[in-house]
Amino acid sequence: MPFAHPLLAVATPDRWVKRAVQCRDLLLIDHANCEKKAASTALALMFAYAEDLVLAGRLSRLAREELRHYEQVAGLLESLDIAPRRLAPGRYAQRLRRLVASAEPQREIDLMLCGALIEARSAERFSALAPALGPPLGELFAALHNAEARHFKVYLGLARRAAARAGASYAGAALDRRTAEFAALEAQLIVEPDEEFRFHSGPPVLASPHNS
User: Fold this and answer.
1) pLDDT tens-digit map of 175-198
2) What are the backbone angles phi and psi of residue 204, rounded to the nearest 5°?
3) Helices (H), the chain
């Protein structure tokens, strides 16, 4: 089937999927870190916008689900005898966050758009990885796909809600343009070669023919 996603501009490159299959342990370790980070991000947003009970309720449920996912991944790490370790963060989330506005109300909208794109990419990668990895990782990723697909809709809904509350100059076509800006940057990070492998990294850098 041709690639189609309501938020993402490009599909995960095949070279990244092939690298992920070769780096199963690193993939799983970084995925566990991503689940913890996703939960902590949701909690941080709840504190940042503490007066918004609707946002808090939606992100509280999301954070709990991300922590349950972490527990599943941690259990798989243990069963496969893979030792977790600290990993330096990749460029993906850091680069997306550079586009976030510093002033409100645009900042809240942008933060929600970042969350939507990250969750959408996670869902898309789970879909790509599940048939490539096989059990037990493939089964786990297939099960997680639907949850991540829900999560991107939560963040996108919160972005639309924040834009509507901010006024006409932030909603409608303005929100569409801002979403397209983030989607273009996200696509660039996904297709550009990456020096290090991470769950949200780009495809691996090709070896120079002079060094092969």
Assistant:
1) 999 999 999 999 999 999 999 999
2) -65, 150
3) 14-22, 24-48, 53-79, 92-98, 106-133, 137-166, 173-191
What whole-number distance in Å separates Cα of residue 113 and Cα of residue 135? Answer: 33
Contacts of 170 (CB under 8 A, 6+ apart): 105, 106, 109, 162, 163
pLDDT (tens digit per residue) in 104-143? 999 999 999 999 999 999 999 999 999 999 888 888 888 8
Question: For position 2, what pLDDT does the model report?
Answer: 55
Residue with tokens 């969750």, as numbered in its chain = 119
- 131/24 Cα distance (integer angstroms): 14
Long-range contacts of 110-113 (CB under 8 A, 24+ apart): 110/178, 110/182, 111/45, 111/48, 112/155, 112/156, 112/158, 112/159, 112/162, 113/155, 113/156, 113/159, 113/178, 113/179, 113/182
